[in-house]
Amino acid sequence: MFSGSAVVQSLLVWATILAVAIAAPLSCQDGGDCLPMPPNGISIFPDRDFLTVEAYWAQQGKIAEVRVSRMVSRSGLAADAVLTVVASVKAVVSGGANAFDINHPGGYCWGAGTDIKVTPDIVGGDIIDLYFDNIKEASVRTLDAKITSVVYDGSKILTLKGYVDPFNKDKCKDCYEVRIVNPDLRPFVTKRDIRAPQPTTHDGYTSTLVINPDNNQFVATFTFDDVEAAQIAYRGGGARVMGWLDVTPDALPRGLTIHELGETGGPGMGGCPPGPQEFAPPASKYWTTVETTGETPAIKNVVTVSWKEPTMPAGLNPLAGYDVLVLQPKASKAVRSDIVGAYVPAPASQTQITVVGPNIIDATSVQIRAVVEHGPTDNPTTRTSDLFTLRGPLKLAAEPATGQTAQFVKLTSSNAGIIKYTLNTPIYETESPKPIFSASAKVYTGPIELAQSAPAIAPGGRVELNVAYAFSDSDEFTKAQFIYTLAAPVPVPTGLKVVGGAAIVTISWNKDANAKSYLIQEYEGSTGPTIGDPFETLSTETTAAQVTVFGRFGKRDYTYGREGVVADLGHGLRRRRQAHCVSLVFR
Length: 587
Prior knowledge:
By secondary structure, the chain is mainly beta. Among the domains are: 284-389, Immunoglobulins (Immunoglobulin-like, Sandwich); 397-486, Immunoglobulin-like; 497-586, Immunoglobulin-like. Helices cover 6% and strands 42% of the residues. The strands form ten sheets. A seven-stranded mixed sheet has the order 5-2-1-15-14-10-11, with no helix packed on it. Strand 34 and strand 35 (504-508) form a beta hairpin.
């Protein structure tokens, strides 16, 4: 039985637990509040495709990943649109006021540390996500707001007009501000910028910001005490409209977007990848092979050009097709005078084409141009790839051939840079959308011993050798399969002994029932060349696994095996500098 005080204490404990459970907020990853909480922050400058991440001091030294996503429809139908990552970057958190900048001098280029090598054209509605260890830490939506006109009549009044994004108006009241940043204003307004609405009562100017709730249009009006200040504000640039998604209880903005009048996007510094309108398909996705005819003399007149359909960044018009050019060796530019009998168009759906010329034996390079549409009235834009050197077709051969009995299999290719294989298991764990090799796949380095690699298979059993091979600079693998019947293990000589005399050598070993004959060979030293022809004996010649050889090897020192083990020959001939070796091979 509980006493009254015990019941009260129990209720207090449960109330405490319940309060903790209710107070613990969900993480961003689990669907909680994703807006950064100051001092942490993400500020977006879409007109410059520039991003700054502030603070995140607790993650100092860690690698952060920023992803830009938007709704993309590959079919062109809005109903088919899905949220798609169009740009990304990996950066190290500095520990300073700015954790890092993206697409800004001193910061990181878009695409750094990731596979999406393109500077995004950031627009309103884009989602900026911040990840640590692949766990979402924060998410900010880019607001769509613009200054569309600046009106000035020479008086003390300057007017800026534009529009704001209605996305945040229900959640965040008074979450927009118009500024003009110009240090030349300091003598007139004591600061380097002016703001609407005005944060103070009077400081050389007054201002208002009026937003029409029906059409989201705004008018920012600045009235200066001095007409020269109005002229500086009009001529000096630096106009921007700022919006944020929410505020803290202390009225600090969260999720800031800053649209800057007159700024241009694209790469923010040298070495950064191009924007979506200048994006070219990556060169590593192309490869070319050349085949020779069976004519006499042989003529190289067939070139097969293959490519992987590039993943085009969002915001880019679709591919219309490709132009394939076979060029002369010293071509400096892709013009028709440089072309050797081939200027072949290919549709966007095609990823391989065969170019046939009268004689392209001197051609050493191929170029692929991806043609991009820009609308029904605009001329198409071509995006030209790098030059690609011709090479022989990718072929693979196995010895012995498929369907035969084998103990070892040797793979050969004249041009494959990478060969991987598995035995009795698939070479790929998955093939779509991109092949992933199974954990058991091995890189081919030499002849494959089937019995050793597949010990559970008895002699006479079926062995599947699955292979994937590619050029050394390509990630496009070709699959092949070879089927074998596993041969019985080749016996290995054991217990080898050599007893030598002046002209007699007696060799003995452990007999093996699987051996059909024995082959004895003399060598100079343990690694030197052979001496004379091998001596072969049949296993049925002696009841013991032993043979005496008369007058064959002469007065020499003998070792056996290639391992360098020296036998005592008993005649004091070790004084000779050159040792000799006898090896035994089972047939």
